[in-house]
Amino acid sequence: MLGEVEGVVDGHRDGHGLVLRADGEPAVYLAPQEMRTALHRDKVRVRILRYDRKGRPEGRIVEILERRKTPIIGRLLHEGGQWLVAPEDRRFGQDILIPKNATASAAVGQVVAVELTEPPSVHSQPVGRVAEVLGEIDDPGMEIEIAVRKYEVPHEFSAETLAAAAALPDKLRAVDRRNRIDLTDVALVTIDGEDARDFDDAVYCEPFKRGRGKTLVEGWRLIVAIADVSHYVKPGEPIDEDAFERATSVYFPRRVIPMLPEKLSNGLCSLNPEQDRLAMVCDMIVTADGSIDAFQFFPAVICSHARLTYTEVAAVLANTRGPEASRRADLVPHLLHLHEVYRALLKQRAVRGAVDFESTETQIVCDEAGRIERIVPRTRTDAHRLIEEAMLAANVCAAAFIASAEHPSLYRVHEGPTPEKRVTLQAYLKALGIGLHLSDEPTPAEMQAISQAAQGRPDAVQIQTMLLRSMQQAIYTADNQGHFGLAYAAYTHFTSPIRRYPDLLVHRVIKALLGGRRYHLVPSAKTRVPELRRGGKPAHKAPKPMTQELSHWEAAGAHCSANERRADEASRDVEAWLKCRYMREHLGEEFSGTISAVASFGLFVTLDALYVDGLVHITELGGEYYRFDEARQELRGERTGVRYAVGVRVRVQVSRVDLDGRKIDFRMVREGEGDRLLSQGRSVGAKPGDAVEELAAIRLADRAAKLAARAQKANAPETAARRARKPAPRKAAPRPRTRR
Q1: Is the pLDDT of residue 699 over 50?
Q2: What is the pLDDT averaged over residues 188-208?
Q3: Above 60 in pLDDT, residue 698?
Q4: What is the Cα 728 distance to its own chain's centre?
Q5: Neighbours of 578 (CB within 10 A)
Q6: Is the Cβ–Cβ distance between 128 and 96 less than 8 Å?
Q7: 561, 409, 552: which is closest to 473 by C-alpha?
Q8: How many angstroms separate the CA atoms of 620 and 158, rounded?
Q9: Count of C-beta atoms within a 10 Å radius of residue 272
Q10: Rounded to an integer, what distance in angstroms lies between the CA atom of residue 17 and that of residue 61?
Q11: What is the CATH number of domain 3-66?
Q12: What top-level class would CATH report for the domain 587-701?
């Protein structure tokens, strides 16, 4: 339907753009010439002009409603007698002109933050001034400094917050202990990774019996104690305002941007060993079959008896007479009870039909300069799993407690596959000949059954990947729709208030209910309007009508969900930059890998040894035509019938690394190619000057020549509007720089 709509511009590095509509309808395409007057993230009104053959709308900008206000990050350059900044985020599409008196103290090549002073127009580029000089591109941690600004992650606490944190006591006072149960004699322990700095959960387990004869209930008493952040962070105060704006801690390799000031996150609210701390406790009775028979919440004072690591606990569980067990002899019985209750809870997970996929998680190990030394897989042990199950149990109890009181709160909602994704998955499973049926209203048990049925098949990884992709993203919302993946009717987040704001809100609600009160959420001026995903609709819409109080909760949930996505994107951006920098040292080398995804334009391959992903473009697969089979998720050669699908093992060579675009390109190594190089007296993957280095150099030279040709073509005013509207003539040769 033609007409005018409003939305936010989502620029593309190729020059065009999309307008993400506030109503969730399909995004409106903007041609490159329409992007002359707008920048990425501007709010605009567009008129829909036509629909393409696939029914996608194309439009024209009618009005710029709101300009982007946050600084743009880029590198300062001096070309053709002009100063300009090339944005680090290629979605902006235009370089920013800088007057010679507005460069501050920045030098050529340095990374800077620019504030716009003049917006772009049909005939001119945007103009700005350098507001902050971040440093050299190779400075340690520069990729993080870029990411936090690129994704607008708040990384500095306000002066009021720092003052409020400094005024907090250094240790517990007598007034803090009032109306709390003393659990300091209970052998609660924290179990975390070796590199953890804040400890927000402690656990304890002991056998339990109640009644006799037919009424006998046997099982375990499981105690989960969570740091009581709500005791120190009060609604409306500066610390609370900053915490809400961040909504979550952001984790980068070697650095964390915390949600709370360090005095809280690593001090008063961290359950450090042998120190009394305030906690909110979930005390549960778990039966032998893994069901939760009873639970209660209460505020307490606890004292962690030990700071344990996953590695240490796994060693104790594997050998109760080993050196680790000897050092923790007094805690071994409690750890064994924790393992017992974990196995019981695991039974209940199977009864519910919860989806449980095993995937390889990796950890980046950096050197002192912040560069990758190696990428290693994280090994998940029973120590990880028992903590996970204990936290799940506490979260479920929190959701049940709040739901039974019919009190507004934030739930962690994970809905099942959308109708479109369900149809795609059904077609895929049918194409593979998998006999198990997927109903029109899939259940977690069906998904889990398909995953288990695929075990042992050569395409098991491929099937699991498709199952994962069919599921929606979990969000925070006031409307409880259950958690599909975990197969819970109600689920919330209670166990990490140090690093997640929704958990802090849940604590406040539980405390209010325990005191016979209601917690009234006050809307914040720092609520962040979430951005819709490209061309998609909101993952969840609250039912109508909705009271004003529920609307406040729904807005808080949308804010927290959006900031969670922002944190994930910033973390992935930094990891991608580090991996690209790392892979530049492996140009020309060959690796074995597995196809992790298939698209119409090529294959994504994960390297076995390095756990790095890259693209094999379809043009690298040979001279024949490859057809993309969406149902089977594979590329098939029409002449030879060669098939490339997820899970297929391949041999690739690193051919190109694009730091600027965070992309790594591979080329497929043909069978016998390595032998041919060896027969010429050259070794594969050896030292500079060998065949692989030469081959890589030739390929890079070819690409450089193509890029130079494109740049020369782009300088022609009749073919490149972006170059034409610059006030000064530009050199036809490639820029003498490397954008990163």
Answers
A1: no
A2: 94
A3: no
A4: 42
A5: 22
A6: yes
A7: 561
A8: 52
A9: 17
A10: 11
A11: 2.40.50.140
A12: mainly beta
Instruction: Please state the pTM of the whole predicted model.
Output: 0.85
Distance CA 78, CA 448 (A): 58
- Helices 238-246 & 548-583, crossing angle to 10 degrees? 60
Q: Where in the chain is the domain with CATH 2.40.50.140?
A: 3-66, 587-701
Print burial letters for 359-382: b (CB count within 10 Å at least 16), e (below 16): eeeeebebeeebebeebeeeeeeb
User: What class does CATH assign to 72-136?
Assistant: mainly beta
CB 203 within 8 A of CB 189: yes
Going by C-alpha positions, the residue among 254, 108, 88 that lies closest to residue 658 is 88
Reading the block at residue 28, the tokens are: 């409106």
Give the tens place of pLDDT for each residue, 606-656.
999 889 999 999 999 888 899 999 888 889 999 888 999 888 899 999 999
| The pLDDT value given to residue 674 | 42
Count of H helices and E strands in the chain? Answer: 16, 31
The partner residues of 225 in beta bridges, in order of sequence, read 202, 281
Structure tokens at 576: 């991608």
Q: How far apart are CA 26 and CA 532, in angstroms?
A: 10
The DSSP call for residue 527 is P
**Cα–Cα nearest to 297, from 405, 374, 219, 192:** 405
What CA–CA distance (Å, rounded) separates 349 from 386?
A: 13
Which amino acid is located at 535 in the chain?
Answer: G
Dihedral angle sign, alpha carbons of residues 287, 291, 295, 300: positive
pLDDT at 459: 75
Percent of the chain with pLDDT over 70: 88
The 10s digit of each residue's pLDDT in 84-143 is: 999 998 889 899 999 999 999 899 999 999 999 999 998 899 999 999 999 998 888 899
Name, in order, each residue with C-beta under 8 angstroms of 512's C-beta and a sequence gap of 6 or more: 407, 518, 519
